[in-house]
Design a protein that fits this description.
- The protein is mainly alpha-helical.
- It has 2 domains: about 10-160 and about 270-310; about 165-255, no CATH class.
- Helices cover about 75% and strands about 5% of the residues.
- The protein is built from 10 helices and 2 strands.
- It has helices at about 10-35, 40-65, 65-85, 90-115, 125-150, 160-175, 185-200, 205-225, 235-245, 250-290, and strands spanning about 295-300, 305-310.
- It has a two-stranded antiparallel ribbon with strand order 1-2.
- A hairpin with a 3-residue loop joins strand 1 and strand 2.
- Helix 3 (about 65-85) runs antiparallel to helix 4 (about 90-115).
- The radius of gyration is 24 Å and the shape is elongated.
- The two termini are about 25 Å apart.
């Protein structure tokens, strides 16, 4: 199938590429600040930057034809993030950065391949698939780099501040499954929230209380840790984590870091899933605006194949 040809303006392509690099650098700066402070409030700033960066990454797929140019821009973006990282060297640190570069390049390649495979420009399908690859790379980068910092510090487990940050960041996701859940709530109240999900709708509070107490006893037996109904969920979970990890071998401690990496990756990936759709709709609005401003227009080549022309 013939390749989609795009008449490109060097200045316009350069502008989009430069914006990609700028927002990649801002992402790196905010990520470094988040690591230093472990303040959940900074997570929203990082998400906003990631959304804007994602918009320009998506636009790049539509406006840049050459894989070599796309890969070069991906490499420069990766360098822009790497510059701001507090720990730049070390095996895991470099692996995290290299993984990000590979996924950014693959995202561009996948988007271009999707664009070339169809007669019509399927904006949402192309954006969704390319964005999913790029955001997977970001999630993998965050997970590997987080474990690299833990490994470099000699920690056998995650610090209390870092654990609190992760738990508060996951509260919204858990609350979608268990309404009313909060890691800042007491163990007793949290177990009542779980009990309400398990019991039939409209169950009496006395039944909910008994079910919650039964759950507390079962968990205490299974975990070999006495759960205090008055203790905060976030504190109880951290105490269980520390108790379990202090009791295992060095090999198991290394394995626990790997498990932590998987948890961080899944948490970041689940957030990225929702961000990807926000990015897609914002990108579509920008795409339509650029077309209205005559930044580019849609034309046709042989076989009625749609192409993008930068005016």
């Amino acid at each position: 199938m013939p390749e989609i040809n795009i008449d490109r303006s060097f200045i316009k392509i350069s502008a989009i590429s430069v914006l990609c690099v700028i927002f990649a650098g801002l992402f790196g700066y905010n990520f470094a600040s988040l690591i230093a402070s472990l303040n959940p409030g900074n997570l929203s700033d990082l998400a906003y930057i990631l959304i804007i960066w994602g918009v320009f990454l998506a636009l790049q797929v539509f406006f840049v034809k050459s894989f070599s140019i796309g890969s070069a821009v991906a490499f420069i973006q990766t360098l822009a993030i790497w510059i701001f990282l507090p720990e730049k060297f070390g095996g895991l640190n470099l692996l995290a950065v290299f993984s990000l570069f590979v996924f950014l390049a693959l995202s561009f390649a996948k988007g271009r391949r999707e664009l070339n495979d169809y007669l019509k420009i399927r904006f949402f399908k192309i954006s969704r698939r390319a964005g999913a690859v790029a955001l997977t790379g970001v999630a993998l980068f965050i997970a590997i780099y987080s474990i690299a910092l833990m490994s470099a510090s000699g920690a056998n487990t995650i610090s209390k501040d870092a654990f609190n940050f992760l738990m508060k960041g996951s509260d919204v996701l858990i609350a979608k499954i268990v309404p009313g859940f909060s890691s800042e709530d007491s163990v007793g109240n949290a177990l009542k929230s779980f009990a309400r999900v398990r019991l039939p709708e409209g169950a009496a509070e006395s039944d909910i209380g008994r079910e919650a107490e039964s759950l507390r006893r079962q968990l205490s037996t299974s975990l070999k840790f006495q759960l205090n109904a008055e203790e905060k969920v976030i504190d109880a979970l951290y105490n269980i984590l520390v108790l379990k990890l202090l009791a295992v071998s060095e090999y198991s401690r290394s394995a626990s870091l790997a498990v932590t990496a998987v948890i961080v990756f899944l948490l970041a990936k689940s957030i990225a899933f929702f961000l990807n759709w926000i990015i897609i709709f914002i990108t579509f609005g920008v795409y339509q605006l650029l077309m209205a401003l005559n930044f580019m227009h849609i034309s046709f080549e042989s076989q009625n194949k749609e192409i993008i022309i930068l005016d």
